[in-house]
Specification:
The complex is a heterodimer. By secondary structure, chain A is mainly α. Chain A has 19 helices and no strands. Chain A is globular, with a radius of gyration of 20 Å. In chain B, helix 4 runs antiparallel to helix 5. The radius of gyration of chain B is 29 Å and the shape is elongated. Classes of the chains: A mainly alpha, B alpha+beta. At the A-B interface, helix 6 of A face helix 1 of B.
Chain lengths: ~375, ~220
């Protein structure tokens, strides 16, 4: 796909960027740079924490997959979801890492022409399915990939990293976040001459920072789905902290959050996510039979109008087309605070993430 | 001495030949790369254009796996809509105005159906067949179809307002909705293929729509 490719994208962000000096400082300290998306999600700390986690993991903690394959993950995810922001960001990062336009074009051609052999071809196919979840990725896909020569740890890391990327897209796409200004700059002819210097400086800054993630006890919501990540402690830490912080956040009631988890889980046909959401709802005093009614009709008179509105919106985050979801998000956001909107998107994003990660659980 | 000079001359000729060939190959590779880029761009444009003929995911599948006659059995909700007394209207309107009116109607209905996660499979004269639950699974396909029918009623009311302003006659439709199992896939001959569904429930949905006249209603739903 060339730069001129048509990716329908709203020209107006649903949530305007806000400059928060403390946030900028924190993100710079941990990542060495501040991607544009942080200016839009800064009002909800747990989302910021999750984003720092995924960016830091990608730049500092990848162990089993190569930098080239990481680029492929970014490109496949961006292509499959038609995420204009992520596509621009992926290209920008590749250019900063020294890849020329020709090399990026070759990478994209290989990706689409299925010239890549062996496990890379199967891994690319699995990444595409993971993005769409139609049909749902299953144990046989993971087994096939291992049989083709990708190590178990690498498969886990790939599924985790791709799912986290798709988590980020549950914000960038509905909110119609505009590609970083740098995308245009790195595409300019002048940049060709200064790229080595800028790339060197950017990499030097990013290499200086190191965000550490200590192993933590995996107890709390979705512990079973996070268990296969025991041998990727940093990944498990990022998810455990984010889920716990999201669950403890007081912006939305827990019942609303669990309903979002259940509805998205049902949309993606993930029984693990639905069952965990049902358990969380029972803890909040909402019985399973009532949830079953909600999951049958996507509406219940037991729920207040806000919850009914939220679950109807949340289902749309499972398989999205940018134009549609951006329109829906704009309508949905009317009358909501930025924190409320971000928490709805964030919990829906977690549900999407869990439904994808559960592929690893089915394997265990 | 002569031998050395001859060898050097040959070497220079050979080196020059290789350099020329190398440049020619490089230029050829560049041209092929550009041609490939153009082809990819054309393919993407073609894909965008084909999205009007079949759902996006079906087009992607055809690109990835090639055209095949593979189909799958799945549960779908069928919405069948037909204009009431359109033959009578068509007899009193010039063809251009008729097509203009019909295209406007289809445009509005298609928009509403898409908003409710449905897909218009085909237009049959002044009727349309919409599918809910394929090609992407949708656990809420029946409520979506019913909500789409209600939204179509509102959209037709608005469209009739516009038609009245232009002096066109008012449109009325009947909608039949039914749920059941079908075989869905790309079906047809080598010359003409379409993404559609086959099954008894398609005919049943059509018959339910016909019954709207008998019961004097605009929307009729089976016990789904």
């Amino acid at each position: 796909m060339s730069e001129s490719v048509v990716m329908p994208w709203s020209s107006e962000c649903v949530l305007l960027a806000e400059r928060r000096p403390h946030l900028v400082q924190e993100v710079k300290q941990k990542l060495g740079m501040v991607p544009q998306v942080f200016y839009h999600v800064g009002s909800l700390p747990w989302v910021v924490g999750g984003f720092i986690g995924v960016f830091a993991y990608g730049t500092q903690h990848l162990k089993y997959i190569s930098r080239e394959f990481k680029d492929i993950i970014h490109l496949v995810n961006a292509h499959e979801t038609s995420c204009r922001y992520c596509y621009g960001m992926a290209r920008m990062m590749m250019k900063l890492n020294g890849l020329s336009d020709d090399k990026i074009a070759k990478l994209e051609q290989n990706m689409y022409m299925f010239e890549r052999d062996g496990w890379e071809k199967r891994a690319t196919a699995l990444l595409r399915n993971l993005s769409r979840m139609n049909p749902r990725v299953g144990i046989e896909d993971v087994r096939e990939l291992e049989a083709a020569g990708m190590s178990r740890e690498a498969v886990k890391e790939m599924v985790f990293y791709s799912s986290m990327n798709l988590f980020v897209k549950r914000f960038t796409i509905p909110l119609a976040i505009q590609p970083d200004n740098m995308e245009g700059m790195v595409s300019s002819p002048i940049f060709k001459f200064v790229r080595p210097f800028i790339g060197y400086m950017a990499n030097k800054t990013m290499r200086k920072v190191r965000t550490s993630f200590q192993a933590i006890s995996n107890k709390g919501p979705f512990a079973a789905i996070l268990e296969p990540l025991n041998d990727l402690p940093e990944a498990q830490h990022i998810l455990r902290s984010m889920i716990d912080d999201a669950w403890d956040s007081t912006v939305l009631p827990r019942r609303t959050k669990a309903l979002i988890l259940a509805v998205v889980g049902r949309t993606l046909e993930c029984r693990f996510t639905v069952d965990e959401a049902a358990r969380l709802l029972e803890n909040e005093g909402y019985p399973r039979d009532k949830l079953d009614k909600v999951l049958t009709y996507l509406h219940s008179d037991d729920l207040d109008p806000f919850d009914n509105k939220v679950i109807n919106f949340a289902r749309g985050t499972a398989r999205m087309q940018p134009e549609q979801i951006q329109k829906q998000c704009r309508e949905f956001s009317a009358g909501l605070s930025s924190e409320e909107l971000l928490e709805v998107l964030g919990v829906a994003a977690i549900a999407n993430l869990m439904a994808r990660l559960s592929v690893l659980m089915e394997k265990s | 001495m002569a031998y050395v000079l001859t060898s050097m001359a040959l070497l220079i000729v050979l080196a020059s030949f290789l350099v020329v060939r190398w440049y020619a190959c490089k230029r050829k590779i560049k041209q092929l790369g550009m041609a490939l880029d153009t082809s990819l761009q054309d393919l993407e444009n073609l894909q965008l254009a084909f999205n009007r003929f079949a759902p996006h995911s079906v087009i992607e599948d055809i690109i990835a796996k090639g055209l095949s006659t593979s189909a799958e059995r799945c549960d779908v909700t069928i919405l069948f809509a037909d204009l009431v007394n359109f033959t009578g209207i068509s007899e009193h309107l010039p063809p251009e105005q008729l097509v203009q009116m019909l295209n406007g109607y289809f445009r509005e209905m298609n928009r509403v159906i898409k908003e409710h996660r449905g897909h218009v499979s085909k237009f049959i004269g002044d009727g349309l067949l919409a599918l809910f639950g394929v090609p992407e699974p949708n656990p809420w396909q029946t409520p979506d179809a019913v909500n789409a029918a209600l939204a179509m009623r509102r959209a037709l009311h608005t469209y009739n307002g516009k038609l009245a302003e232009q002096g066109f006659p008012q449109l009325q439709f009947g909608i039949g909705i039914h749920y059941g199992q079908v075989v869905a896939g790309v079906i047809g001959s080598q010359d003409l293929l379409e993404y559609t569904v086959i099954g008894d429930i398609v005919n049943t949905a059509s018959r339910i729509e016909t019954l709207t006249r008998k019961f004097g209603v605009d929307i009729l739903i089976s016990a789904i």
